[in-house]
Amino acid sequence: MTAVDLGFPRVPGTRGVPSAPRPDTPKLVDTFGRVATDLRVSLTDKCNLRCTYCMPAEGLDWMPGEQVLSDEELIRLMRIAVETLGVTDIRLTGGEPMLRPGLAGLVSQITALTPRPRVSMTTNGIGLAKRAVALAEAGLDRINVSLDTVDRETFEKITRRDRLPQVLAGMSAARDAGLNPVKVNAVLMRGINDDQAVPLLSYCLEQGYHLRFIEQMPLDAQHGWDRGQMITADEILGMLGEAFTLSPFPAKRGGAPAERWLVDGGPGDVGVIGSVTRPFCAACERTRLTADGAVRSCLFSNDETDLRSLLRSGAPDEEVADAWRATMWGKLAGHEINEAGFAQPIRPMSAIGG
Question: Is the full-model pTM beyond 0.85?
Answer without folding.
Answer: yes
